[in-house]
Specification:
This protein is an alpha/beta fold and about 260 residues long. The protein is built from ten helices and eight strands. Helix content is about 40%, strand content about 20%.
Length: about 260
């Protein structure tokens, strides 16, 4: 197997969580130990995977007592003294839940510049992400926000593939190129595109043309059944049309690449 650490990014609403959920399911189905990491502030990967009471999961960045215990400072304490290398090796087992062969961790929001970005919760999240990507041996699926704030130059080298999800539309393509630039800046080597919500060959051609400098890993069809599933509170991974498309993407990911 070639890949072990996959990060998924793209503009909000394009289907990052959808792809992350179906990929996690595909790897787990084939017997791999999978850690699915929800690093999107909207945090709905658990619900997409059908985790019971997913809405009750508290993100790591909101666990104030844990943050203070491990860093020695209260959350958002910008300018305070705190540990820069907190212990995190026990957190994946203690602060994750498992369902249908998939272990889920919800990271929470990374604070950005101007809002106390260098703070205890960011340090803890950064240390935890480094541990998950560099020290753990499981298959990691990382569902990120539109940017790549959860990755650093140190962890980028551990990502076997960064997949940028796009949909037909200029804004989505512009976000993809911004993510590509950020990824190149921190040293991510392997980038691919997945087109989502594709209704016809013209839309697939539009995606291919707009991202011609990146590998198009595959496309996922527009499925009206997803709307119905979401309205009924059903896991999105029940869509067979999307499952078939993601299974084809999965097979490309595990296939050895030509030198």
């Amino acid at each position: 197997m070639r890949v072990k650490k996959i990060a998924v990014s793209g503009k909000g609403g394009v289907g990052k969580t959808l792809l992350s959920a179906f990929l996690a399911q595909a790897f787990a189905r084939d017997g791999y130990d999978v850690i699915a990491i929800d690093a999107d502030p909207d945090a709905n990967l658990g619900a997409s995977l059908g985790f019971p009471d997913a809405n009750k999961i508290v993100p790591i960045s909101h666990l104030k007592e844990l943050i203070q215990e491990r860093t020695g400072a209260t959350p958002s304490a910008g300018g305070a003294f705190f540990k820069l290398n907190p212990r995190v090796d026990d957190l994946p087992d203690e602060y994750s839940i498992k369902h249908n062969g998939i272990r889920l961790m919800v990271m929470g929001e990374v604070k950005r510049g101007g809002s106390g970005c260098y703070c205890p919760e960011n340090v803890l999240l950064g240390a935890l992400m480094s541990h998950l990507l560099l020290r753990r041996d499981e298959m990691v699926i990382l569902d990120m926000a539109a940017g790549i704030e959860h990755l650093s130059r140190g962890t980028a080298k551990a990502v076997d593939r960064l997949i940028i999800v796009v949909e037909p539309g200029q804004a989505s393509l512009e976000t993809a190129h911004r993510v590509k630039k950020l990824a190149n800046d921190i040293g991510v080597k392997e980038l691919s595109i997945v087109g989502n919500k594709i209704r016809n060959a013209d839309e697939e051609a539009y995606i291919s043309k707009g991202t011609k400098d990146l590998e198009l890993l595959g496309v996922i069809p527009y499925d009206t059944g997803l709307v119905d599933a979401q309205m009924r509170g059903l896991p999105i991974i029940q869509s067979q049309a999307i499952k078939s498309s993601v299974d084809a993407i999965y097979m490309k990911l595990i296939a050895p690449r030509e030198p």
